Amino acid sequence: MNAALEMRGISKSFPGIRALADVDLVARAGEVHAIVGENGAGKSTLMKILAGVYQPDEGSISLNGERTRIAGPIDARKRGIGMVYQELNLVPDLTVAENIMLGSTPARLGFVRRRALTEAATSVLEAFDARIDPGAVLGSLTVSQQQIVEIAKAYAQRPSIIVLDEPTSSLSEHEAQALFHIVRRMRADGIAIIYISHRLREVLDLADQVTVLRDGRQIETRAAEGLTAGEMIRLMVGRDLTDIFPKREVPIGETVLEVDGLTRPGAFADVSLRVRAGEIVGLAGLVGAGRTEVARAVFGLDRAQSGEVRVDGAPVAARTPAQGVAAGIAYVPEDRKRDGIVPSASIKDNIALPVLGGLSTAGWISRGRERTMARTQVETLGVSPPVIERAVDTLSGGNQQKVVIAKWLAARPRVLILDEPTRGVDVGAKADIHEIIGELAAAGTAILLISSELPEVLAVSDRIYVLHEGRVSAELDRSEADEAAVMHAATGEAVRA
Predict the structure, then answer these.
(1) What pLDDT, in 10s, does the model give residues 270-281?
(2) Is 240's pLDDT higher than 50?
(3) Packing angle between helix 143-155 and helix 173-188, nearest 10 degrees?
(4) Residue 225 vs residue 380, higher pLDDT
(5) DSSP reduced 3-state for 390
(6) Where does the ABC transporter domain start and stop, copy by copy (predicted)?
(7) Residue 178 or 149, more confident
């Protein structure tokens, strides 16, 4: 088979991050080439280079044997590259036919040729054996039907290469089987298909070739035949833990946080977990597994439909963050710039936000108490520079994160939920933050830690709950947890076993 695509020696760096290093990818006509790897392995960066969103720092791209430069997304599309991202890129108020033919709508003298539009869309849907009304408004369809329309839109452009990024992440097993039929149909048509998925069983069912990425590097490319999910997991996670995440042994006390049967349809279902005083419990899972959604519901940012949350045995009706704070729960969000800080405000003002009531008398804030409290937190957490009047957006990422943590520590929570606490910070700041986490656990705080970095979860957690598609798929003690065991549960392999 001919190589529809050859990417050779692709490297890409961002400030402080080596995203890709000397990666090769060859996709052949009439073949499904799967790319697998942990979160942050470089899959998305590689595909954004193919789509023209990024330009590589080094390396070359050839299409059908001809070396080329992809100037941007429109250029990629003109060159026969179709992209189907995990997040649907459709217009809900338009019809199915209008969505499928977006960008290539048949027209004459500025007027849309409605009959030609419908016929063209119908032809694509029939090629997929998809029973979807081309005249239906897209927003009236199910998620699985919209996913098929998204792929049909890419297929309508007559591409030679189609990239499918987590196409089944929102689909049930039955719905996924309909999608697999479409993938096999496109392969039979001679299209080169690049398939990205965390669901290893479907990779083994569909793929002809598999490339494993880890930490921005190509670990191995081999035929899918004879490959097992266990082998893929070992290739994906083959890293050693480092001293960046030291584990501090502390006494474990009584249960502080209890979550029973927490459910929010479409996000997570029947989630139950326990966190004890002084215990660090990891919440692991792949992107889209529901980790952040569970944390937000426990804190009160989002409302669960059913289930119960208790702190120290007392039921918590956390329908707002204020109610969560009043119950003794604090939440450090994954996106600190959007949800964790007021960037233009001072360190002092940010730290004081959750405790303004305690700093006030008859509605007047005591500035002296506010400054004393802020200085104490800055000194305790080692915020640098320790200037409490300084705007937070002038600090480094690691020090901004320390301010977010300081803000909640001032509220003296019984439960601290940390969502990606070391994302986007340098190695030194990671070590500092984990030292702080260890000190908090030693002081008896119950800590729920969410991280996409498996070495982080494994190194500091006393126990780990693993989520797969919104449900708890495993509970692992520290003694039995390793990267392979977590990945088995995160990809659903443990559930099936």
Answers:
(1) 999 999 999 999
(2) no
(3) 10
(4) 225
(5) coil
(6) 5-240, 239-494
(7) 149
The answer to whether the CB of 167 falls within 8 A of the CB of 151 is yes
- Round to whole Å and give the CA distance between 452 and 424: 12
* Rounded-to-integer distance, Cα 275 and Cα 271, Å: 13
Q: Which two tokens stand for residue 346?
A: 């001072």
* CA separation for the pair 190, 467 (Å, rounded): 37
Instruction: Encode 336-365: b = buried (16+ Cβ within 10 Å), e = exposed.
Output: beeebbeeeebbbbbbbebbeeebeeeeee
Find the mean pLDDT for residues 274-297: 91
d(CA 105, CA 64): 27
Q: Domains along the chain?
A: 3-237 (3.40.50.300), 255-496 (3.40.50.300)
Number of H helices, E strands in the chain: 17, 24
Mapped onto helix, strand or coil, the DSSP state of residue 295 is helix
- Percent above pLDDT 70 for the chain: 92
pTM summary value: 0.58
Task: Tell me which H or E stretch contains 87.
Answer: none
Beta bridge partner(s), residue 274:
258
Length of the chain: 497
Q: Are 366 and 359 in contact (CB under 8 A)?
A: yes
State the chain's mean pLDDT as an integer.
Answer: 86
pLDDT of residue 174: 64
Burial zone of 371 (CB within 10 Å; 0-12 exposed, 13-18 middle, 19+ buried): middle
- Residue 53 to residue 76: CA distance in whole angstroms: 9
362-383 pLDDT, tens per residue? 778 788 888 888 888 888 888 8
One-character DSSP codes across 312-346: TTEEE--SSHHHHHHTTEEEE-S-IIIII--TTSB
Name the H helices within 128-274.
Answer: 143-155, 173-188, 200-206, 229-237
Q: What angle do CA 17, 19, 24 make, to 5 degrees?
A: 155
